[in-house]
Amino acid sequence: MKKYVSQLWPLLGLLILFPIPSIAADPELPRRYVDTTIDFPTGGQTWKVRSGDNLQAAFDSAQPGDIIELEAGATFSGNFVLRPKEGESWIYIVSDKLDLLPVEGKRVTPRDAPSMPKIICSNQFNPALKIMQGVSRVRLIGIEITTAYSLRDGVQYGILQVGWAGYDVPMTGAADNIIIDRCYIHGTPTGNNRDGIQTYNVTNLAIINSFITDFHGVGYESHGIHLYCSPGPTKIVNNFIKAGGINLFIGDSNLPQKNGVNMVPMDVEVRGNHLFKPLSWKSNHSSYAGIPWSVKNLLEIKAGLWILIEGNVLENSWTGAQHGEVFVLTPRADAISDVIIRKNYAKNFEGSANINSSDVTLRNVLFENNLFFCTAEIPVQGFNTNAGTPGNLSNILIRHNSYITKEINGSW
After folding, report:
1. What is the pTM of this model?
2. pLDDT tens digits for 1-12?
3. Can the peptide bond before residue 41 be classed as cis, meaning omega within 30 degrees of 0?
4. Cα distances (Å, whole numbers) of residue 412 to 70, 172, 184
5. 109 C-beta neighbours (distance < 10 Å), count
6. How many CB atoms lie within 10 A of CB 120?
7. How far apart are the C-alpha atoms of 182 and 143, rounded to whole Å?
8. By C-alpha distance, which of 231, 200, 397, 201 is closest to 304?
9. CA Rg, the chain, in Å?
10. What dihedral do alpha carbons 149, 154, 160, 166 form, nearest 10°?
């Protein structure tokens, strides 16, 4: 007989490691947010790009205030680049079948692909689309962005790069006001496709209502979204994100510097997303598809300030390259501070959270009103915590969370 039992022991263990101070201030919410209200440009030119047309020429010719309208069903193959323009108006890059896509605020799925144009990278060495530093006020709506690379003898680094110049290229002006809306961004089922969306130097970035899938690697850490160092604000809302290594990765171990200051992600809003790993990637599961993708966790932060993670579904994580945690907070290049993790639903995992402050400061973190639900699909091990250097921990709050396991066939 199936029954549900609430168990609080993993959370109590965290309370022992991180006792609540007698006077504990809640972490701060993000101080800035991204406005994603649609406001189509008026008065400019509409560039109608059809199958066989030169997409790069349209990107180069369009000016602020213009709309670039791509033919749904057309495929544009290459490594395309959006470069900075002079002007204060937006450029919208859209499908010509927007009326057939979900309305504003609703998420697309692969079923919507016939109503989208496709931008596809024909090789493993460059992204399908690169939005350069200094680009301002660009919104993509209803675009499929993908790759043809389906092998595992190398790795494809990134399908969509935003604010990008390169890891070793000095940062100049940030990309600003970049909105990815209702886009279908995906790798291939069999390829080492490392990153879906990579960000570098971006302010006012939004990734919303999109479907991001099939980013994985054998022997490579992969990411659905890698918010590498963008100083924010950033909005990641209502996306489906499927990735092998880390579905959503905020910060990195080696953040670049601008004017001697680390570009720590700040003011990050993560709400209403579904972060997912299919059990067909789990080697001992009955549905295993035979490719040993490197699996780490569902959401990891290595540096960041003022981060809200609220109302997300985080599903399936097991021991692979790491211990199968839902949340990993391990500051490396810079501090993690003021993180609120609340009202999330986590299902099927081996570790609820890994909190490790051995390198730099981890402070002002709140876990509140989260539901952790486990079944026999993945045997749970509870919280995998590592206090690291005690002096680097400050104000870690654990409140009003529920931990539920489901008994199946009499075994836990």
Report:
1. 0.91
2. 334 334 444 444
3. no
4. 53, 54, 38
5. 12
6. 18
7. 7
8. 231
9. 21
10. -150
